[in-house]
Structure to design on (1332 residues):
């Protein structure tokens, strides 16, 4: 059961509610986000929740049977929008593109890609400065200085930034330069990181684990929400299967299922989802057709020379074609 | 290497070709389909295939490095069309719908569904009469008498039939009543069945195995082609993964990859691919967006009472809506 | 519910039983095997099965909640033994080795391997004459003539034969030359083949599907049993996973689970289970430690020259060492 | 290529070596562990490494083609031992048991379990104080105070502690109370954590990811080693597959493969590997038979009342039986 309190719930009203819960042996976890105040309770099935709904100080109350609570659509039927400021809003019915290189490499690289995004009316740029790499000997990104340079260039052109955060200690140094924190597939169940991201007021996009279930993804999102941050997005990026013609197997089923089970926006990552440059557009279009709220695309002016993931980066021409196709299909849908 | 012979290749010309192959120690398998005559050869890399291409009696010659040969696009760049007669053609750019119940149940059932197909201008009806079932105690279909009844009703209304064949001995009794033989996911590597389907002149749609790879599917299709039957379609129906919110995980990546690697039409099976009625439409649309040449959909006037697979059958209203959405999207693409 | 009838159940006794079932609306499937007569019934939970157990003509009655019935240990608690004649018995506590090449290749090959088996006191030889191959262009085995030669040599030396049957039409021609029919991983759900193997009185070893579940394997065994053949063994041969350092992932968990859920013998196939020659012995020993009733091992005097699967065949020296290790561990257990 | 320097390599010798590398355009990463000094180089295939081996100051040099370097057996053929002090050594040929509850719950609980370990001559106790949990609302462990209590009790009885560390900031507070840091399956690719564990001189046991490959596990171990800590163990704990009769599928193949590819000790976790109490013993014995160097077992005096993982905890009687069986099998092997 989720109880949402009125923003002006008085101490006396609260006392009355606590007493009622206590009398009925109902345990609760208290949650304060940037927007609201909730009590998440584990409930005896027979309890009549209208007893609570009728109390003063309570805005509403819902029974949620899912293992995740605050991210469930059982509680909140209206789809969540994420407002990044300056008119950039991620929301249902408005398929949002995010695009950019795998890694931030240089000032010139960022400038050229920003120009291309502006031309195509794309408002959010991706680009990693802290790169999780399987091998300790691989390029691990430009770090915080790279992020500052990335931010300086984007800010002046009205472009928002989505970039990966890998550990708790990075949050503070990154927070002023990031519009969306991305939690990568390898960190989906890095619970300390999730907890810590709950205490900042910056949107978070959380990727499904490499072999993570739908349920695990939503419970990981619940970590962030229950730690205080409602500005959340989910990202499907392909799962690991036995097939090795492609890097990952994009799970198109996850798109409608996540939309059904949660009120959070669902973003597709076709670049990692298939990992083959010439097919990224088909998977992006399929995601849109299946109901995704946006897509994050890897692109680079010279994919062959990218520091990482070159095989799945679109070049500028391919990117423009994709934007056009998406615009046409978005219109229709 | 694939050598395609001229249809009027003379014995002398053939003799000359055989001699050349022999002199170069090239082994070959001779293949005669309903349309053409081929020699599939395993080739030493250094051999110059133009020596063969210039011979009289040879129509063309191609090097094919894939493990499958005649179904590869390396050999035949033009996408294959399958003509079912009466103007029903499965081909690229003409997303073809096949629809109907999981199992043929009764005369009344077939009649009602045929009526619905006619209304929606759908020309191909699915329906099983031999049902592969995990348990020996489950309903196994109406058998050959059910097929005859099914055929009688469809024939009079101009509807083509796609239905599953489970074993070699069924081919002969079924062949006069079937427009497309379906090879089910459990029989994708039933090699004797594949061989036998090579010797009939009826189109075959072969489904990917439950955990079959792309390569295995194409090699299984190669079995049928190399046994003499070029009228082939591939079907993606979802793979088995760790996720159990849905029955199977529809592999959207397989659509563009199969189209890239093979010249055969690619059909999507969203009903088995997600296995949840209310999301079948999204997966069907996604398949179309990703480049599929058609889809096979389970539908029934009363899904709740279907003998099998009720949870993934669309009802008539849902089916009509899907047809409309597909028509709109097909237009755009 | 499984009702086992007395072998001398009289028509009057049977009539009384049928009447009781009818009066209680209990549907039943009648099953006659080479040993016994059973009625498998779907049961209303509240029905008191002692009403049936007390009837004359009924030997015993058990409730079985598993999806499979006659192969379940819920019904038959005593582990099944398979007697191949001449003192060769597959049974619990007597880890049985089967060994031999992937494919039967020649008379000389069989003779040399038979000699080696005799030396090591191994009584069952494996060897394929009908080979399921992913590609139609691969070697498909010596066929029925190869089997006759194989049989002639083994018979004279007291060696029993286990070999794969791929389709219904092969059963009749093979039946006189085979001691154990093997159903391969690709045919685990070839239900017509399973049905047909129910009507012969020859033991059958059924392999788990490439991505088959425990439940599916047991239901496939149920097909054979319910079609009349109780002489059954189960075989774990590894499943397909994302890992590609090895060919398959041997599922050691399946050994104790199959022993818990079914009364049938469980055989391990470490050769396919790991697919790497130098580690086959470790997986064989692990299977024994985990409770398997036997193992089937690929071996060849010259693995490098084997027609198929050379990378996972033991040579004679490696085989002897394995036999010694197994004998020592068997002693201990 | 790995160059190991002599401990007393002089500045002049080092200068000579650096010059040689520079002249040959060989890039290197310098690594200083608690024991040795290495240079890991990416090498042009044609370079003759004997040129380096002959230099003064160089102890030895090896070519390593694996993606991981310092953890590879290509470099170090002798199996690594981990000395925990007080005569407790984890090494090949000495199957080491670690056992204890999933979570540390109370002083009484620790005391009772320590007693049981002492009786069975088991020297290492497991027990979580920081618990990674899918849901934010689950019990997350007693934290650092629990660890201090745990340590106090173990210390006095000569028992070593293995416990999970979840994030960088915990290392410092835990380090004085821990004998082996465990990296859990969800953190196998938490690269910042791995880096940080490289800078402490405490042994680390790293678990394979939930769907992690062999290669990824070894590269993760490489992170720790290359950050300075050679005291490493690998742990196989089961992978996620489509089978849901058991929680995970224990990958027995991984045992011999990890032993082949790496010089590090390999520990089995049968409790998570099958997740079913009554079969934990079979998987433990199988691991030993397959060549594991130890096992970590969950046990509790009242599994039904354990705070977490009760379904896979052995009770004391089951644990004693397992210890006896392991002792007998260890003897044989």
């Amino acid at each position: 059961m989720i109880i949402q309190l009125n923003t002006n719930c008085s101490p006396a009203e609260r006392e009355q509610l606590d007493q009622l819960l206590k009398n009925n042996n109902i345990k609760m976890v208290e949650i304060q986000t940037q927007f609201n105040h909730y009590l998440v309770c584990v409930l005896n099935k027979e309890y009549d929740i209208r007893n609570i709904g009728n109390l003063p100080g309570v805005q509403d109350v819902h029974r949620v049977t899912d293992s995740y609570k605050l991210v469930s659509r059982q509680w909140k039927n209206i789809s969540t929008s994420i407002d990044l400021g300056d008119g950039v809003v991620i929301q249902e019915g408005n398929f949002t593109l995010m695009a950019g290189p795998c890694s931030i490499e240089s000032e010139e690289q960022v400038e050229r890609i920003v120009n291309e995004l502006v031309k195509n009316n794309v408002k959010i740029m991706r680009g990693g400065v802290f790169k999780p790499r399987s091998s300790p000997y691989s390029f691990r990104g430009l770090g915080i200085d790279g992020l500052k340079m990335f931010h300086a260039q984007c800010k002046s052109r009205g472009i928002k930034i989505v970039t990966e955060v890998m550990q708790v200690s990075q949050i503070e140094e990154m927070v002023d330069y990031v519009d969306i924190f991305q939690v990568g597939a390898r960190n989906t169940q890095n619970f300390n990181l999730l907890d810590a991201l709950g205490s900042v007021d910056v949107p978070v996009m959380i990727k499904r684990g490499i072999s993570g279930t739908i349920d695990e993804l939503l419970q990981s999102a619940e970590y962030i929400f229950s730690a205080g941050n409602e500005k959340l997005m989910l990202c499907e990026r392909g799962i690991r299967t036995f097939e090795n013609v492609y890097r990952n197997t994009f799970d198109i089923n996850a798109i409608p299922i996540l939309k059904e089970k949660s009120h959070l926006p669902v973003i597709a990552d076709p670049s990692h989802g298939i990992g083959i440059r010439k097919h990224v557009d088909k998977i992006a279009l399929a995601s849109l057709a299946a109901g995704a709220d946006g897509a994050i695309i890897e692109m680079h002016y010279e994919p062959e020379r990218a520091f990482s993931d070159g095989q799945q980066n679109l070049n500028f021409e391919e990117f423009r074609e994709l934007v056009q196709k998406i615009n046409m299909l978005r219109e229709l849908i």
Notes: Chain C has eleven helices and 14 strands.
